[in-house]
UniProtKB/TrEMBL annotation:
SUPFAM superfamilies: FMN-binding split barrel. Residues 49-166 form the Pyridoxamine 5'-phosphate oxidase N-terminal domain. It comes from Microvirga brassicacearum. This is Pyridoxamine 5'-phosphate oxidase family protein. It holds the Pfam family PNPOx_N. Coiled coil: none annotated.
Length: 220
């Protein structure tokens, strides 16, 4: 069975659906004005209270835009892996991965980036928007080395806006509650997904068996 959005109520014929919002005025009329707190919390630099969040965060998502579309990439390491160089500059090492370099390709065409920082157990998240450049400065790379292995590049992000997001999304999702964790075996494994998408040319049981050791040896 093929899944389709057209099976959802109200989406059988989107082009003629009169319930779709297509004008900004209609959108603003529906939602009303932004509450004062949501505007006051936005800054154009990393103030001390926001720096504390960045230095405690072991995980962030990096959003970019390029000629082939959008990309949102997970980034993670020890708390504070994104370094606050000063109140207008963040440094993000590009650790080992699959070499798709989707984010880096996009940044070469469009330097605008967005970061979303998450901290385990904390409801609030932190959002940063800015512009990134890709650095290969030897001293900068060396400063991010782990086990004598530096990243290939470091993103130098010029901060434009910073603000925290309230905890509603985390509360609704119950993201940090241990009892909501999903058993890994209840979903397709990496090997199973690769096998399905490659018509059994890649992946499979052997891929899954070797994956934990391969990941541990290629973290940096």
């Amino acid at each position: 069975m093929t899944l389709s959005a057209r099976n959802e109520p109200g989406l059988q014929n989107p082009a003629s659906n009169t319930n779709l919002i297509t004008h900004l005025a209609d959108l603003e009329a529906l939602y009303g004005g932004a509450v004062e707190a949501s505007l006051v919390k936005e800054t154009d630099r990393v103030v001390p209270v926001y720096r504390a969040f960045i230095e405690a965060a072991p995980f962030a998502t990096l959003a970019t835009s390029g000629p082939e579309g959008l990309d949102c990439s997970p980034r993670g390491d020890g708390p504070g892996f994104v370094r606050v160089a000063d109140d207008k500059t963040l440094l993000l090492p590009d650790r080992r991965g699959n070499n798709r370099i989707d984010s880096l390709r996009n940044i070469l065409h469009d330097p605008r980036v967005a970061l979303l920082f998450l901290i385990p157990g904390i409801g609030e998240t932190l959002r940063v928007n800015g512009r990134a450049a890709i650095s290969t400065d030897p001293q900068l790379l060396a400063s991010f080395a782990v086990a004598e292995k530096p990243p290939k590049t470091v993103l130098v992000i010029a901060v434009e806006t910073v603000f925290f997001q309230c905890s509603r999304a985390i509360v609704r999702s119950q993201l940090w509650k241990p009892e909501t964790q999903v058993a890994r075996e209840s979903l397709p494994s990496a090997g199973e997904m690769l096998a399905a998408l490659s018509k059994n040319q890649l992946g499979g049981t052997e891929y899954d068996r070797a994956l934990p050791e391969r990941v541990s040896k290629t973290l940096y």
